[in-house]
Amino acid sequence: MIHKLSSKSYRLAIGLALFAMFFGSGNLIFPLSIGYFSQDQWVWGSLGFLLTGVLLPFVGVITMVIYQGDYTKFFEVLGKKGGFLFAFALLSAWIPFGSGPRCVVLSYANVEGFLFNVPLWAYSIVYSAIVYIIAFRKSAALDILGYILTPLLLLCLASVVYLGVQGSTGIIEGSVKAPVAFSHAVIQGYQTQDLIASFFFAAAVIDIVSRNLKDGISPLKATFHSSIIGVTLLGIVYIGLIILASSSGKLLNGVTDDYLLTTLVNNFLPPKLAFTGSFAVALACLTTSVALTFVYADFLQANFFQGKNGHAIAIFITVGITFLFSLAGFETISSVISPLMQFFYPCLILMIIWNLAKYVKNGTL
Question: What is the tens place of the pLDDT at every residue in 225-244?
Fold first, then answer.
């Protein structure tokens, strides 16, 4: 466990933790979907996705650094009651009704072939139990995410992308024009929900590192520097996945989004290494599920369950709702998330502009 991080190690550890928090189910699905859609216009697809999938979350982290991790103060632009209700609705749409169950379903879709016909509900029970155990030990979350799961995840993803591109038939000319590829990717970037994540993950990381840093390093400075590492890794992985899918030709025709990666893995990796890609997906989903769970549970505990057992109750409720909605399936979950994000994202962007303009003008919050 990391009890006191030195100035030589805090940037990398926290940067990897932030990457692991951000890089969940949507971060694997949508770059592949964009690459397949864009084909020879993959550069424009990459630019559009990097705009809303990388740049906006980075701006969100910077905003939270300015607000010293206090996202409640940020939302007070809507008034105290309005800000609370907006944050509660935003968190609920994002975590137990959206990204949380999506992580479970995508994880299952990519390891289903190794489970000997285990049904989704049974897999979700085991998955949820693991998430509960890790999230309950919140003090160890930074260690688990930063030092163990993230390097392994990056290694798995690098193997899949490299071998996949090497074994592909090359990028072919598609029918999609550059402006269409760009605009499509921008909208898909909303679906990752990482702008929302940046507010709450940055606040959580600032809180964690404030208890673990030594040598007088500012938690805000540590989070800012580390976020550069996190979003840079995101950008690199996104581009790799987009190129992989765009060079896969007709291989992905008729494949649903939740099975894109497993299809590529089964075609490009030797049978003995096929588990690598599936394991990469499971890791991405698990790391994000843990982060999502303790962010939502913290909110519930702070506002509804402040008693002795409040932490355990809040985690149980979060995991329980996520489990129930995971049984709805990927397509149903996505159909719920998409319209919600097209409402929340513009609202958040406007609030960022308003709050940062106020800060620049007045020099205070």
Answer: 777 888 888 888 899 889 88
